[in-house]
Amino acid sequence: MSGIDALPPLREVISTHGLSARKSLGQNFLLDLNLTAKIARQAGSLTDHDVLEIGPGPGGLTRGLLAEGARHVLAVEKDARCLPALAEIAAAYPGRLTVIEGDALEIDPLAYLTPPIRVAANLPYNIGTELLVRWLTPPDWPPFWESLTLMFQREVAQRIVAAPGSKAYGRLALLAQWRAHARIVMDLPPGAFTPPPKVSSAVVHLTALPEPRFPADAAVLSRVVATAFNQRRKMLRSALKGLTPDIEDRLHAAGIPPTERAEQVSLEGFCALSREIAKP
User: Do the strands 97-101 and 117-122 form a parallel or antiparallel pair, or are they unpaired?
Assistant: First the structure.
């Protein structure tokens, strides 16, 4: 019996079902159930929420979410080897766990979830950033989720919360911070995982804002930021000259010196510039 429920310890589950982690699936398993319960608590109150989990593997975080009172968990798992272990969890928590076998990049989970919804996941490293970008760029805002509590490589986590002037500051920071409040809530060393990855990990908690921090057209902002950071060492008057022939005038109108570089410009500045560029 484990410390958080009546199910076996995760090492025993992995041994019973032959669940060696596969590098091709970006798998690194967390085996400490006290740690997975702690991650689940970082998601906030779960009692009245459905939770979407991507890549549950043998179900460590799944058990943490259920033990912390999640109303219902939808777990999307690509690795069919994990399904029997997850079925055992579903049996131990009747009616509160639904497992879907498939690729998280191809499945629409909303048919299985009832708002309010939180997302909590130890994301597979190979699709983590792509999923985050999708969740941050829906056609309509606010999104389907209230919060995201996600495990990333620490380097990626630092890019999400980075401030202007830092080397980590770039497109991901601007995308996340425009529409959400983002903070790192936990650090995890490689030894917390089986097998240990070569890098440290961190849990990021993002809370959706009711509306973006500053007005801007999402498509224009995305184009401006991408263009600026694709040539981040260049002054903005050079890096952005392909967007509009009068880029220096528009930079001045947005209150940005044309000699600034992308990493020196705040989110508010990029939004102001996007509004200027959107003008006829």
Answer: unpaired
pLDDT over 60 (residue 1) = no
Instruction: Give the CA angle between residues 214, 185, 47 to the nearest 5°.
Output: 90
What are the sequence ranges of the domains in the chain? 10-208, 218-278
Nearest to 58 by CA among 93, 12, 10: 10
Tell the CATH topology of 218-278.
Helicase, Ruva Protein; domain 3 (1.10.8)
pLDDT tops 70 at residue 2: no
| Contact present, 178 and 212 (Cβ < 8 Å) | yes
CA distance 135 to 46: 19
Kindly state the percentage of the chain with pLDDT values over 90: 87
Query: Tokens representing 101?
Result: 């076998």
**Distance (Å, whole) CA 53 – CA 280:** 44
CA distance 116 to 51: 9
Report which of 37, 29, 35, 38 is spatially closest to residue 85, judged by C-alpha positions: 29
CA–CA distance, 186 with 182 (Å, rounded to integer): 13
Token look-up 């508010």 returns: 268
Query: 3-state secondary structure string, 199-230?
Result: CCEEEEEEEECCCCCCCCCHHHHHHHHHHHHH
Burial of 24 (0-12, 13-18, 19+ CB in 10 A): exposed
Superfamily of domain 10-208: Vaccinia Virus protein VP39 (3.40.50.150)
